[in-house]
């Protein structure tokens, strides 16, 4: 289909590139333009971001139209330092299908208490504003992939 479309626009989000096709004469131009606008809206939000207040959590996690993984961690936590970069790499590899919010429990203790985080790292997956799955501690790369799949699908464990 792209070969029939005369004009292409490239939209960039950091290192994430998306190709969006649009042609004023193309029969599907309105739907393609709407899709392009949706991609622009999505691209304004970073894939991985920090959350430190209840208001940010509400807006960026609970109200997100895209599933969000929330990594409750601490700077002094050794397992958190091992898990965090692995999660980030896996999230970035999903091409915007899922986002990641990082919550430092020392800076956002109320959020940690709201979600009964007693151990770090604790990772919760939100889909449609609800927790669909979670884990505590470190897990293998294969288990991370399964966890992300469940989060994207919105299925509970």
Automatic annotation (TrEMBL):
Keyword terms of this UniProt record: Disulfide bond, Electron transport, Redox-active center, Transport
Any single GO CC term annotated in Swiss-Prot or TrEMBL for this entry: mitochondrion
Tagged with keyword Electron transport: yes
Regions that span the bilayer: none
BP terms from Gene Ontology: cell redox homeostasis
Domain Thioredoxin positions: 33-153
SUPFAM superfamilies noted in UniProt: Thioredoxin-like
UniProt record similarity statement: Belongs to the thioredoxin family.
The name this protein goes by in its record: Thioredoxin domain-containing protein
Organism whose genome encodes this protein: Mesorhabditis belari
Organism classification: Eukaryota, Metazoa, Ecdysozoa, Nematoda, Chromadorea
């Amino acid at each position: 289909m792209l070969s029939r479309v005369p004009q292409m626009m490239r939209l960039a989000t950091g290192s994430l590139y998306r190709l969006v096709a649009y042609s004023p004469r193309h029969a599907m131009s309105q739907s393609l333009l709407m899709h392009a606008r949706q991609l622009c809206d999505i691209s304004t939000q970073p894939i991985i971001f920090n959350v430190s207040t209840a208001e940010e959590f509400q807006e960026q996690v609970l109200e997100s139209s895209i599933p969000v993984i929330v990594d409750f961690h601490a700077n002094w936590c050794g397992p958190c330092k091992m898990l965090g970069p692995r999660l980030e790499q896996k999230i970035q590899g999903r091409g915007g299908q899922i986002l990641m919010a990082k919550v430092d429990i020392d800076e956002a203790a109320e959020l940690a208490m709201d979600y009964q985080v007693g151990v770090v790292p604790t990772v919760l997956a939100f889909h449609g504003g609800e927790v669909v799955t979670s884990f505590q501690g470190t897990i293998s790369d294969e288990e991370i992939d399964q966890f992300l799949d469940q989060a994207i699908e919105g299925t509970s464990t």
